[in-house]
Input
Amino acid sequence: DPKDNRFFPIKGSGEVLDRAVLNGEMNTLVVPGPDSNADSSFICNSLRNPACLQDIFHKIKSQVCPERSNQRYEMHGSEGKANLVPVRVARLKICDALSPTVLHALACTPRPQVFHTMAAKAIAQAAFDRAWPMILVDAFLEALSLAGITAVSVVLRWSDNGPGAQGQDFTGNYFVLACAFVLMVVVWSKNIFTEILLFSGYRRHSWIQEYWNAIRFVLWLHLALMFWLQLWLGRGWLDGSWSDPRTIRPLLAVVGCMKWIRLLYMFRGFESWSFGKRILPIMTSLREVSTFFIIMFFFLGAYTTATYSISTNDVSILKVALSAYKLNFLNQFDMEKDVLFSDGANEQQRPREWEQLQLVVFVVASIVITISLMNIYIGVMCNAFDHHTERVVELFVRNRADMGLDHALRFEELNRWYNFCGRREGTTEHDHENRDKQERLWICHPALEQNLSYGVGGLNL
Output
């Protein structure tokens, strides 16, 4: 329909545009073109003129509707069609569908039904298709930084001379530490620069509240800890002597764990092997039950305080807290060591003044915490995982849109800074925006979808 511009008729070009190999749920392609009316006229005239079908084949079919790999598809031939699926080709009416404004509206919309529309899935997939090469580069750099952290950990473990050692000699591992330092500094600098670009983009669009979330706070904490580690390495590299490595090994443990989780979180948008759709329900469920851990902390604190108050003088509160954890979370305990806090070697000399009260506290804690709360926790976790598995489409599309938004803001700010620092002749920000508005998003989706026009022509966020 030239007016609605949603689907163009197949008719005589059915052999060209009726089947394709789908890469996932649908194929998307963003192509620059003329304005909407001129584009519609070109399509309609081409379909009426058989001589123009080859132009449509090369411009649309070969990219939006690909065939089998390394196989040439003839227009009037049927060979190889058995491996193709029936499809429809559509185009979104909205201009500049991958702009930060549209992606932000999609990523932050409170309407969950939006994410089940074909338009939302197409916009999120097209945005992620633009972003995934840079995401893989970021993941590769994070893996290099993780390798540097691991190398530093290995060197420090080999060179550990015990508590209080100062000025240890790392001459034999100087090259390893230098390489690890350079890798970590390069990756850290790239991450800082990226976050500055994103902060600038969110601030310029007045979205600063969406920028500061829990994940972003953890990211900045990770960057601060990495700066601390790099400062320690840099001082040792310049001075030729390092301070006590035992003070830095806990920091290595923390940043190493954070780096692994960050690396996993970067793959949440990938559709291959349903990787992203498996990561998101798990991580969202863990985030949701975090309040339950706070409740558990108070119950464990109550048990620890009660047990420590009636224990013998030679028992530390750390030992009592560890025993409480073993009893309530692992369900592994020794009656003599973890409840009565005696080694059992000499029962005659063991103080029995508080033994009965200790057993009462143990019984109450085992019923309330070990049996009741832990079973409630298992139920809460199962319900949360089932709930987020049911809404995995919403989580997946929203996170893809969010990753596409970060990518779009990053390059938008780079272009702004480049134009501000040294504007190219004949290129202005206004020209750049006008060029982007000519982009059109094409969709190739299964023809078996019901209510094909729903969510394609428009998107109400």
